[in-house]
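Tutorial sheet, problem 5. The three components below are modelled jointly, 909 residues in total.
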Amino acid sequence: MSIEDTFREEADELLIDLEAAMLELEEQPDDADCVDRAFRAMHTIKGSGAMFGFDKLAAFTHHLENAFDLVRSGDLKITKELISISLDSGDHIRDLLEVKESNSDIDQASQQLLDRLKLLVGTESDNGSNSLNDADVIIEQDDATSEDIKTYRINIKPDENSFANGMDPLPILRELNDLGICNVTACTDELPEFDKYDAEKCYLSWEIILSTDQVLNSIEDVFIFVDDDWKITIEQIDESDNASSVTEYNCHVEHQDEHINLPEKIDSKNDDLAILVDKQTIPETLPIKKKSKKQKTKEVVNVKVPAEKLDSLMDLVGELVIAQARLNQSAGVLHDSALTNIAEDMERLSSELRDNTLGLRMLPIGTTFSRFRRLVRDLSNDLGKQIELVTEGGETELDKTVIDKLSDPLIHLIRNSIDHGIETPEVRKASGKSEKGTVLLTAVHSESNVIVTIKDDGSGLDAEAIREKAIERGVITLDSTPTPQDLYNLIFDAGFSTAKEVSNISGRGVGMDVVKRSIEDLRGKVSINSVPGEGSTVTIVLPLTLAIIEGLLISVSKENYVIPLTIVEECIELTKQEVMQANGKQLIEVRGELVPYLRLRECFSNDSDNPDIEQIIIVKNGSSRFGFTVDEVIGQHQTVIKGLGKMYEGIHGVAGATILGSGDVAIILDAPALIELAVTDNNTMH
Amino acid sequence: MSKTIMVVDDSSSIRQVVSITLKGAGYEVIEACDGKDALAKLTGQKVHLIVSDVNMPNMDGISLVREVKQLPQYKFTPIMMLTTESGASKKEEGKKAGARAWLVKPFQPPALLSAVAKLA
Amino acid sequence: MSIKIESVDNKSQYIISGELTIYTVKEYKDAIFENFSIDNDIDIDLEAVDEVDISGLQLLSTIYKSLENSSAEIKITSLSNVVSDAFNISNLINVLNTENIEQ
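Model answer (structure tokens):
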């Protein structure tokens, strides 16, 4: 990862922090902590941005930083408009992070935001503005050299406390030595007798005759960090140029002294004394603010590790778990108690190692939650509704990949709740509810799953309307009698998607079916329940990680397969008799419903004969069901998914493979893809 | 003997660029992410220079300078502030606390090195 | 870093190693002072000094100056490159009687 990427990542985190701070300020405008956080976020983005060549970003952020500084000093109040500008600016900074070059659209956007800010801040924003350009004046190196060699006499008398202040004259002497030909004379006259000598005080001074082609600036530069209390004179003693010039640095300035002693400056050409002036004219105009209270230790010390390293660690741990299972099996066979003991210890350790490794990929879901507060705020403003987002269980941890992929579906669901669920304040008032609606977002652990719910206290779903629409769209037949629960869940059906819905939040118009598919891609399940008049609850059940799945281990003529347990509904027997009764159609009646099935034996071109009694694994396929015939159901199996490698990359119906305790390989089936394959085959046949 | 410099900044990208610059010039670098972290890492080993940001969470740079000046083993260690703050009052506050130098971000690596060479 | 002081009869030997800087100079000065007498000859071994600053050189200079008017003999028996470089750059080498440095 390049430094620039590190910066982008860092800036992104800081922007989330800014956003969170703004939203908190909206509730509690006098929270000094939040102001500090916002200020620091802007401050760091500005500093680092300038460092990495994001000049526009730095210049823009600078104004925002100033605004928050004014808030910190009490010169500017937190208002809705300031929060709004800050949030918009956060978005704008994200754009600026993408483009370094000039771009008229972006420049215009910057200007608009700055104009808004200016209205709020007035001219104060420019007060004491340490603009980016004058910022680097201190260290500006002047490498220009004059053509001929000049000779200077330099006197250095360090302050007697200079050692104690951490200033050693040696590097300065060394640096002067590097500038040209140096003739150094040390003056030791003030060295006291040993018994009166204080080892930490400096009694020495030097006179240096320096012949150099460097300009005066370069010599002065050597003394940049020298304490004001040192006495330094630089005098040109060049014979060729009759005008001898002296720059005297009489730095002895008392701070109580009202007078500002400008350095005596004889060399008129040398006008670069900014540093010196700066050192001596230090007005105490701005009050020094006290820290309000101890800052919460929000920051945790983290080590950033590339995701690939974690992946390969996970891979190795997976292999270890597999080897462990084989060890167990062998130990069992050998009946060696010593070996069995070791195997048991190993099992405990490797399972702890596995859990720990999985834990490394875990992040609290709360970071995603906080992004939604912004969404809710913007949406409710747009729609004229009053909505509060309440989140619970933000500390619940999920695999980072899952969290990343969960963001879009959650945005869509929340948007849906706000758009269609929660009523306008007037309507709510009329139906006896509080004007303010609530969207409750929760996450809890449940065994190896995380359950995320989005609950609103809106009007709830209209089962009858869904039913009519479903019939109209041919999703269900007129005579079917689904329960209200079934009807609600029809909104996730692909055929049900309401096309007029165009989301401007996630940036693309996705229907609820897409939400469902994204969640299923994460091997999760989504369902909705609703109470008319009281609101709806969407429940998402997600696996903790994508690297390990709970599967059902089955076999077909001695070959092993794994079907993810999340989609398995039931296992039933299929006798030869039943097969014959179906007249060659691969359909089976399961409690009054005809379910199509696929023979895995045929699917994987296995020539062996079907056993007399086959097993059918019934899996959910969206709202319908589908069966796979297998020879034997072996049982539940927790498995680490291994990729199959490039050779098998394009094969449909296979999600990966796993190695069993016996050392055998089992193919993990991608059930939805197999079903799709079967359905298309079927269609082309007719 | 290479000299050891402690770099204190809450921005990991700044830490990275400072530490790459310094390591490239042959210095040993210890990184810390704020004042508290810096103090925690000042444990016995010799540090020739501390380069610190001013505005940081938990403990800011100026407080860090004050704290370091209280530590018998580090009270002589020069401290350079490396910051976007160029306001005179802030500089004076830092100077009073005991900061030796003030380098303003954004900086050019050669400028950083030349400043470090003056102090370390 | 350490200082070792050995005294036999009218002769002292200081063996300094490691760091001779502001961080250690007070400690060394106190140790030397305890043993110090302007009548004693002094041999100083700086072979193992790997870091020195002006405060360290100033300590040595002070000892030298204190013996200027004494009959006692002081010499640096050996010194590291770091120390000799620092003595040269700061010109404090002048304080030492260069003839007394055994190279």
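Marking note: The interface with chain C takes residues 163-164, 166, 168-170, 173-174, 177, 184-186, 188, 191-195, 197, 199-200, 202-204, 206 of chain A (CB under 8 Å). Full credit if you identified this.
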